[in-house]
Amino acid sequence: MPSLTVENYLKTILQICVQTGSEWASTGQIASGLSVSPGTVTSMLKTLSDSSLAKYKPYSGVRLTKQGRMLAVRMLRRHRLLELFLVKTLDLTWDQVHDEAERMEHAVSDELIDRIDQYLGHPEVDPHGDPIPSADGTLSGENAGIPLAETEGGETVRIVRVRNQAPEFLRYLSEHGVALGEVGTVQENSDAGGIVSVQMPEKLVTLGQAAAEMLYVERVTAD
Amino acid sequence: MPSLTVENYLKTILQICVQTGSEWASTGQIASGLSVSPGTVTSMLKTLSDSSLAKYKPYSGVRLTKQGRMLAVRMLRRHRLLELFLVKTLDLTWDQVHDEAERMEHAVSDELIDRIDQYLGHPEVDPHGDPIPSADGTLSGENAGIPLAETEGGETVRIVRVRNQAPEFLRYLSEHGVALGEVGTVQENSDAGGIVSVQMPEKLVTLGQAAAEMLYVERVTAD
DNA sequence: CAACTTTTTTTGATTGATCAAAATTTCCAA
DNA sequence: TTGGAAATTTTGATCAATCAAAAAAAGTTG
After folding, report:
1. I want to staple A13 with a disulfide (CB 3.0 to 4.6 A). Which of A25, A38, A94, B123 is the partner?
2. C-alpha span between B20 and B24 (Å, rounded)
3. Residue B43: which residues within 8 A CB-CB, separation 6 or more?
4. Is pLDDT above 90 for A222?
5. What is the separation of C-alpha B67 from the centre of its chain, rounded to a whole number of angstroms?
6. Is pLDDT of B222 > 80?
7. Mean pLDDT over each residue of chain A, to the nearest integer
8. Can you give the CATH number for the domain in which A8 is found?
């Protein structure tokens, strides 16, 4: 029922809320998230409000309604299941699936998504470690892990999530031995130098601060 | 580059041409194929002409250009590969895949389609027996088989294609033992009664004339 | 708190896809 | 060959999504 455009607005709003930890998303955030002009966003926010998918408060932003949030979560679920499906069936790599899923998520039925979920055995995370919402609309695990940037030299960490879908970034990681589930030891985290380096099983990888903010890890306790 | 709408027009035009064996498709045929009004078609035909995807001749219809035909064939290829992919990976049945593929075909990249083609081992036909165009745009095998309606009592035939995607029709066939590749014996083809009946390995199936025109078979010579 | 900056909204326009209904052209049959 | 009937095109309108640029509101800072 909702257009592809509406689906994209809802998803973007939800992602902003998750990332900022707020209930509200501003016109400007949405505009830059979708690469459209602010004026376009304003008019779409009114449309969303009219269809009870969000509550729009002029000059403040929007907040998803239960219904809108449900739809947005469903888009996230579709996107993430599709990504994993492409990786599992066709052996695509984590840098190849985002754009593909971005378009496909608007084209598949709920029934197909549930089939895929079942085929994959109800997975918890997608190829980037992003949690997959359950069929009933529950979105949990969005807070797992901490940015690599917050760790210190000497710590042993497991890679659990990459919060940046840029193919070049993902390929850089792969080429330097960084993959989901791998364990490494932080060599150095220097604010002065603006870098973090981690010894992975095979290779040593060094990332800038910005990049280290996007790579999420869990501290591993020797057991 | 071409919009979803343009892709659908091109595909529809190609299908009309294939079905009628003509180079031209009329405004009316396209309008009913796409369930839009004739006036809408007229204006889109001008658009297609302007983008050199088809040649429009007022009151006569359109004819695809080489470029337009290429694109249309590509849509057919996508559609058919997607159908088979869904059947092979997720065990969907032939009555479940058409609508799904119809939407997905606009959302997948050429690269993904080629991956799927490779994964499936370069198949020749989709789950309905429709031939899959090759990557270079060759569409062959569209003339394989003859309608069951043209066979006579006593002939042994192999089911090779179903030219009707209606889920109810396909389910009716499945429920009566008709599946691609199966062999049966025509019991009766009666113009008077308007029915054709075929003894399949498990069951006896009886179809009306119209239905028998949509089910394609090959005569099997005892060997 | 007044002036400047930033953000947001409004305004006016455009584009693509569609429709209904009127006008036109083509076709067929008497 | 002529008078409908059928098919097609034109016309005028609508709707969703977008933009640029002007106007207004909110925020910030000396």
Report:
1. A25
2. 9
3. none
4. no
5. 21
6. no
7. 96
8. 1.10.10.10
Give B22-76 pLDDT, tens digit per residue: 999 999 999 999 999 999 999 999 999 999 999 999 999 999 999 999 999 999 9
As given in the structure block, the two tokens for residue B153 are 């009592």
Q: B42 CA to D7 C1', in Å?
A: 12
Mean pLDDT within B127-154: 94
Q: Which two tokens stand for residue B147?
A: 């309608």
Q: How many helices (H) and strands (E) does chain B have?
A: 8, 8
Do A109 and B100 lie within an 8 Å CB cutoff?
yes
Inter-chain residue contact B119 with A90, CB threshold 8 Å: yes
Nearest to A107 among B90, B92, B103 (CB): B103
Residue A112 and residue A173 share a domain: no
Q: Residue B223 above 80 pLDDT?
A: no
A81–chain B nearest CA distance, Å: 14
Task: Compute the average pLDDT of residues A125-146.
Answer: 94
Q: What is the pLDDT of residues A187-206, one digit of tens each?
A: 999 989 999 999 999 999 99
- Residue B221 is predicted with a pLDDT of 84
Do residues A168 and A208 both lie within one domain?
Answer: yes
Does a structural domain hold residue B170?
A: yes
Write phi, then psi, for B46 (nearest 5 degrees): -65, -40
Joined tokens for residue B207: 């179809």
Indicate the number of domains in chain B.
3
Nucleotide nearest to A42 (CA to C1'): C9
Residue A173 pLDDT exceeds 90: yes
Bridge partners of residue A55, in order along the sequence: A63
> How many contacts (CB atoms, under 8 Å) link A and B?
37
Residue B26's Cα: distance from chain center in Å? Answer: 19
- Inter-CA distances, B23 with A192, B6, B13, B182, B220, Å: 71, 19, 9, 34, 32
Domain end position, chosen among B64, B90, B108: B64
Note whether residue B69 is domain-resident: no
Q: Which pLDDT does position A223 carry in this prediction?
A: 66
Answer whether A159's CB lies under 8 Å from A181's CB.
yes
Specify if B56 maps to a domain.
yes
pLDDT tens for each residue of B198-220: 999 999 999 999 999 999 999 99
Amino acid present at B131: P
Domain that holds residue B137: 77-143
Query: Residue written as tokens 């028998």?
Result: B212
Please indicate whether, in this complex, the C-beta atoms of B108 and A100 are within 8 angstroms of each other: yes
Query: Among B91, B112, B143, where does a domain finish?
Result: B143
